[in-house]
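Dear colleague,

Thank you for sharing your sequence with our group. We've completed the structure prediction you requested, and as agreed, I am returning the results in plain text so they can be pasted directly into your records. Please verify that the sequence below matches your submission; if there's any discrepancy, let me know and we will rerun it promptly.
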Amino acid sequence: MLQIAWSVVRLIFWMVAVPFFIGQLFNFILPNDKKRRTFGITYLLGLLIYFAVFEVISIPCMILIKYDAFKYCTWIYGVICVVLAVLGACRYFGFLFTEKEDEEARKIKTSLDYVSDLKSMKIDTKIYFGIFIALVFLQMVMSLVYAPFDGDDAYYVVQSLQAQQLDVMNTVNPYLGRSNLLSHEYRHALAVITMWIGFVAKVSGVHATIVAHSVMPLFVIPLVYFVYYQIAKVLFKDKKDGTGRKELVPVFMIFITLLMMFGNVSINTPATFLLMRTWQGKTLFCSLGLPMILWIFLLMFEDVEKVREVQGGLKETAKVAAPWWIMLTLVNMFSGMCTALGAGIGAAFAALLTLILLIVSKRKTVVLGAAVSVIPNIVYVGIYLLLQRGLLHTIFN
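Please find the predicted structure tokens below.
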């Protein structure tokens, strides 16, 4: 029993505490606004950095280290993340504040605007939020209790398990049980989300299959709805004439949860993937990656609207805040980490939204921001092509 409790503590540490404190270390990236620098958004930023660091470390380890690659990856990644988390904790508790950061900025860093929002809500709005939370909780419980099996587990989950137990990184074919030394399926190998699940399993002492089937749904499902909640807050913000559109946010969220709960009309729908194949990279890309890209661009459009309200007139150009381009870069890295196709589809989706943003803002600099944000995608595709042609192994061997 004590061993189980200790494993749960380690899971919470590596999946909740470490990303949150990493976010606290880097949340100066976010605008100095209590509505943009909340606990939730700070955690999301930290999680994206957490994933990005893993991708940067794991891919070179997988390609360049022949034996015990995962052991080296685990140690390097674990030490770096713990150091970043400790620095973030020091900053959070006030030990790393500079003289330029006044008391107001300190309050913003630890802002929980949800509490004030809850107090100002009408009774019916609170009831709607209660229904939404109950539906999300139901989905989490059902995913945990039923733990649905999927045929792809024979590949994806086994890769995580092999990493945990054999310290290998995509070098043993799960179907044949023999070494292939990355000789095939590079698009699966570069989608290192399976290795991250293996890392969580390794450092927590929990079987990789349990992490995939039982832990990941409890982690991913509320995170997905948090992103949709952020989208809803932008879409249904109050109008200048005082119209209370914010009250539609919980209604929108209930609608989204019902779509997910009753979306199993095919094995290929996003709803089916979210609730029945939660741990797979393609699920994370569709359920988290694409909505995050949409959310970031909605924030950019919101910035454009605010500038125009101040400057007046449609002829004025509007500046887009740099933090959103940084966030978009991190999301692009996360997309490639989930699935190789994410590197291309995510970039294409961002390019489409950038075109719309360019027309709305009338600033050519948005093209530069978008170009910088897809650099990780270009590097990712370059590594994939080099692996396919065997050039990387030729260079380093």
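Summary note from our side: Confidence is low (pLDDT under 50) at residues 107-112.

Kind regards,
the structure core
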